[in-house]
Structure formats: C-alpha cells, structure tokens
Amino acid sequence: MPRPGGRTVVAAGLALTLALVAAAVAWSQPKRGTGQHAGLGGSATGALRIADSRGERAILRAPALAPGASAVGEVTIHNLGVDGRLVLSRSRLLETPGAGGAPLVPALRLRIRELAPGRRKLVYSGALATMPKLHLGSLPAGESRRYRFAARFLEPGLVDNSLMGARVRIDYRWHLRRQ
What we know:
This protein has one helix at 6-20; strands spanning 50-52, 70-79, 84-96, 108-116, 119-127, 134-139, 144-153, 167-177. It has 1 helix and 8 strands, in the order H-E-E-E-E-E-E-E-E. Strands 1-2-7-4-5 form a 5-stranded antiparallel β-sheet, with no helix packed on it. A 3-stranded antiparallel β-sheet has the order 6-3-8. By secondary structure, the protein is mainly beta. The chain is elongated, with a radius of gyration of 18 Å.
C-alpha cells in the first residue's frame, strides 16, 4: 500500500481536528425550574448535578494530526450534588468519508485515563467509535475526578489517500446516577 502524501496527512489531520472538536463535549440539560444550564446534564433530576472544567468545550482538538501522532486533552468532572455513580457514554458520532470514500473512524484509537495523585488508571483503550458505556465508580458529593483523553491516528501504511477530506465528530455524555 503506498504511503500517504503530505496533502493526505494534512487533510486527514484537519478532518480529525474538526472531528474531535466536539469529542467528549457534554450536553447540558436545563436545571429543573430555572431554565439555566447545569454544565453537564445529569441522568436524574433533583440533587444529582455535575459540571465539567471545560465549560462544554471540546476536551481535545487535533489540528493537522499526522499518521502515528496523538492529540491529548484533559477534563475534570465535579460533583455538585449528592453522592452518585459516574458514567461516560458516547452520545453521537458524525462522519464524512474521505474523497476516496474511506471513513476516518477506523483509523483512530482512543485511550482514557483517570488521573489521580500518584497514579494514572486506564479507563478505556480501543477503537474510538466502539467505546462501550463506562461505569467509572462512585463520585461522592463535592468531589472531582480528572480524565485524560488521547486520540491516536494509526501508523503510516495503515492509512491512504482515500481518507483525504474525511471528518469525524464524536460527542460523549457524562451521567451521574444515584447509588
């Protein structure tokens, strides 16, 4: 298989940038009775509330990501309500195939780590598009968790010119559920 040319790498990188602009963007739900946004939507009403440190901006962006390279971003999730269990799931995937009809998603891998003092716990490592719902454990009231997302574009030789112009956007949703 021929190696991708410079234009392909730049086009795929730009496509990945647009794709991951919304990676892990949390969708707000209005607070009950106020019409205001709570930062991140909860999976229940009442005292279950969480917020993110990114203010609903993309956790990571990947401008001009070349094959073999990675883009990294971090987010902190704050529990503003009562004790709950934190869940992360994919809410939407939008993809535009490349000029040759090739999808970009199969060329992307995702790694998510929980960052805690003195350790980095692997939460997920695998295909970007097939991440299952992740049950991240208890998140007591008033506490926070920090996560690092790293998206990697597969090595040269595993991608080709048919990806030129491909784009992908993946949105994730954080939930807090009663224990």
